[in-house]
Each structure stands twice: as structure tokens, then as C-alpha cells.
Amino acid sequence: MKVFKLDSNTKTNLLENLLKRSPNNYGEYESVVSDILEHMKAEGDKALFDYTEKFDHFRLSADNMIVSYEEIKEAYEMVGDDFLRIIRKALDNIKCYHEKQRQYSWFDSKPDGTILGQKVTSLQRVGVYVPGGKAAYPSSVLMNIIPARVAGVDEIIMVTPPGKDGKVSPNTLVAACEAGASKIFKIGGAQAIGALAYGTESVPKVDKIVGPGNIFVALAKKAVYGHVSIDSIAGPSEILVIADETANARYVAADLLSQAEHDELASAILVTTSEKLAKEVEQEIELFTKELSRSEIILKSLENYGYILIADSMEDVIDIANEIASEHLEIMTKNPYDIMTKIRNAGAIFIGEYSSEPLGDYFAGPNHVLPTNGTAKFFSALSVDDFIKKSSIISYSKEALELIHEDIEKFAETEYLTAHANSIKVRFE
Hints:
Layout: E1 2-5, H1 8-19, H2 30-43, H3 45-56, H4 69-99, E2 106-109, E3 114-122, E4 125-129, H5 138-151, E5 155-159, H6 170-179, E6 183-185, H7 189-198, E7 208-210, H8 215-224, E8 229-230, E9 238-243, H9 249-260, E10 267-272, H10 275-289, H11 295-305, E11 306-310, H12 314-324, E12 328-332, H13 336-340, E13 348-351, H14 357-362, E14 388-396, H15 398-402, H16 405-414, H17 418-425
């Protein structure tokens, strides 16, 4: 990891380096994705079958593209009781947390004859993208499907790429069934995003697409935004740890590496006021990387985007943390709750030395689909809110409108919208 004294130059260089990881900087792939989406729009199932054979090496057809009952039954037999028990415990925690996010319609009726309100309606059909192959994460299945279910979405279409044998990871299938997926299609990549966005003869068009994927999936989601809604354009994983001299260096090092192992573009940053802690964390990282299974990826990630920043004051630490706006932010200080109140920008905040980031990834309940690449300045974690829409309700009696109709007419006339004014005026002629 790179160790720097935190100053204005360090801050500028760090922020510029982190921005290189954004999917918005991968323009060279956009033409490939655009071609795939155009073929999907024009040819539907045919293009979907061709691309699946080309990229996933499996001959897809209308008969084998939906996961069957027999395949699901086989998956349950393969995963074992322990996995099922853990999945169900995690599911309960995630569901309980998201149920507290529910919003309800409301109406405000007044004696003057006005009724104002807001009607909350769930989306009718959503698509959930789930990566396949080595990146098969049943935890992401739960995090994307459960809030949609809690919101009351009628139909949840999950898509995930098949292996060469046409199979889907049994862990993924079981997680999807437990969470409540309506249908599971064996399709992946930009072509799956196109199928969900435009619809094909076999795949229904959805209202919104959520879920992580590779750069092609991210760019495809960006391209179809407007035809459908999307959750966000996810970038590589990241963690920022705020720590002082009271922090346990071994815990800090372990937590930094938990994100560095995701991929070579992952970012792991420690910001501390203690030079002693900084040195101890360096030593612990060196020891850990000798024994962890993904050490090659970890070392590359730390070489590219791993930082230890030593600040003069906790105010400087908080300032850089808010500038970086990290996906995951851990606080290991003497007074972590005091620090937490000063954090404006973070996807998820983990407080105290026993609240390590993987707790949020798998089990605690809050969603692990979080804003990355500084977008925590204006985006939030995936939630029930992502699967609902709101309609305003307005009802006025004649008596209520009569009291204000002249004001409305004058307002419209100041904007030279005489038809607007007339629409009110004709009711009192």
C-alpha cells in the first residue's frame, strides 16, 4: 500500500486516481455494447440465442432458457442443510430491515373541500441481473430480490448466465427461490440487459433493472436507461477505514483486505491520525497476504488503489472521508458515534471494531448494493424505495376552487399561458 502524509496534493492525486475506476471511463467498450443492444432490439430471441452461444458457449432455445422445477429441486439437494439454514437466517434479517422502509399512501382532507395526497404503487415487473461463473454471489441475489418483494412488485424476473453445460450455480438458484424470484432465465451479459429492457418473444420487458455485473453489463444498463429505470452504474468495490491510536491494527488490516480481494480495481484506504497504527497495519497486511487464497488479486489491488493516509487531525480525516464518499466506511476510533454524526457521504457506515464490512455483505440486514466511485454524495443504498413510484392526488370542490381561482388565472397569465388560465376561468363563467 502507498503511505502518504495527507495534504492538498495527496488529496487531489488520490481523488483523480480513484475516478479512473469509474465505468464512465470505459468508452472503448460502448460501441460493442451498442451493437449488441441494437441486435437485441431488432432480432429478439434470435440475437439472444446467438450471443449466448458466442459468449457463454451454450446453445440456448425457448425450451431451455427458463430454469425448470427439476433444476431447482436438484439445486436444493446439492447445497446441503447448512447453506439453507444460513440463507434463511440472512433472508429473515434482510427482510426485517427492509420492511421498516415501507411507505404508504396518504390523504389529507380539509374542511374547505380540498383533498391532497400521495398514492404509493409498487412497480409491476422488475429484472434482477445476477453474475454467473466465478462471480456467483447468492448474497447479491437476496439483496436485490428481497426489497422488491417487500415493496410488493408483482413479477421479479431474474437473469443469470449459464455455464457451458447450461447449468446455473445451485447456490444462486436456491437463494433466488428462497427470496421469491418469479422466473429465472439462463441469460447474461449485455444481451440479457437488452432482453429485459426491450423484451423478446420469450423474455418479458421489465420496468426496472437492478443488480451488479461486469463492465459490459454496466454500460448496457447505462445505455437502456430511459427505456427502463435502473438502480445505478456499479463500479469496483471500495472501503475506507477511519481509525485512531485506539484501533486494533489486525482488525483494520483484515477489513481492508476483505475488499481488496474482490478484484484488481478494488480500493482499500486507511485514514488515521496515528503513525504507529499505520506502520502496524502495514505489517499485518504483509502477514495476511502470505496466507490468503486471493493474494495475487489483493496485491494488485493494493498496488493500484491501496492507500494509508496519515492526517494531522480528526477534522482532516473526516474531510477526506466525505470527499472520497466511499461505498463502505468503517469507524474504529475512541468515539465512533461522534465521528459518525459528521459523515455526510458514505454508502454504508460500520461503527466499532466488531462491525466489520462483511457483516453488512451477508447478514446484518441493510442492503449491500451501495453507491460507488463517489456517488454516495447523491445516491443511496438499494432499498424498497427503488421498487415503488408515487402519484400525487389532488381533489378540489367547487367551493374550494372558487376561493382561489382568480389567483391561479393571474399566475397563468404572468407566464402567458392563457389556455391554462381559461381552464380555470370557464368553471366560473
